[in-house]
Specification:
Layout: E1 4-5, H1 6-12, H2 18-26, E2 30-32, E3 35-36, E4 42-43, E5 50-52, E6 55-57, E7 65-70, E8 99-100, E9 109-115, H3 118-125, E10 133-140, H4 145-153, E11 155-157, E12 160-162, E13 166-173, E14 176-183, H5 190-197, E15 202-210, E16 213-214, E17 223-225, H6 228-237
Length: about 240
């Protein structure tokens, strides 16, 4: 790939207009291969190691980052051998192919990150980075203080202990409850198994947040590109 002006590559990566990117360079906030950049520098986007405010920036023009609201009943795969509905129909119609970062089980819905930035995806999924995932679980029965104490203290499951970062009741009505749970692990159906183990079977599970990225008002089946600030926050969280 040919070299291009650093400010042009930064602008394409979402850091604002070329003038705004020139200002970042003038302020000494940009480094290229460990050296503070100056106006006039050129880079090879796919090869240069560029950082802004001490956070790595992927200038490869082919990388994409999206947030998808995965609907319930859809498996988190690009092709299901059993023929069940998969996420292909929800991927952006144009641009490079992207892949899911982690999984949501078929019955669950909510935020699923998509990207073709394999390095960032691997970092986000690695347990050492302890990326928080926040869920809203609707459960059978009104959660009791004793049940929530067990959730917060951790539960031993068949494949090891399940521990939450935070858990709280956010509503009860007519013998049903709603619980917000924050975890850093993502074992298979872990939230469902954890709550079932204390007598709170889950009837609906929605993932609201992955690290700094929130589901917000994204409709089921809808997808949106991540903003530059969101990509930077993910990169910082992953230590890149």
């Amino acid at each position: 790939m040919a070299e291009e002006r650093l400010q042009r590559a930064l602008a394409r990566a979402g850091f604002g207009s070329r003038r705004a990117c020139e200002q970042l360079i003038v302020e000494g906030r940009v480094t290229v291969d460990g050296v503070i950049a100056t106006l006039g520098d050129k880079v090879e986007p796919a090869a240069a190691h560029v950082r802004v405010d001490d956070v790595d920036v992927n200038l490869d023009p082919s990388v994409r980052y999206y947030a998808l609201h995965k609907p319930s009943g859809v498996v988190t795969t690009l092709r299901d051998p059993q023929g069940r509905p998969d996420i292909r129909r929800y991927l952006p119609a144009e641009g490079p192919r992207v892949f899911p970062v982690g999984r949501l089980d078929r019955e669950s819905e909510g935020l699923l990150l998509l990207t073709n930035d394999g390095e960032l995806a691997n970092r986000l999924m690695h347990p050492s980075h302890r990326v928080e995932k926040e869920y809203l679980a609707e459960v059978e029965g009104a959660p009791t203080a004793k049940q929530m104490a067990r959730v917060r203290s951790g539960v031993e499951l068949d494949d090891g202990p399940a521990r939450v970062v935070r858990a709280r009741v956010v509503g009860t009505s007519k013998g049903r409850g709603a619980v917000r749970v924050v975890m850093t692990e993502g074992r298979k159906r872990e939230v469902r198994r954890l709550l079932a183990a204390v007598g709170l079977p889950v009837t609906r599970l929605v993932r609201l947040r992955v690290g700094p990225i929130r589901l917000g008002d994204l409709e089921p089946g809808a997808v949106r590109p991540l903003a530059r600030e969101e990509i930077q926050a993910l990169a910082a969280l992953a230590g890149r």
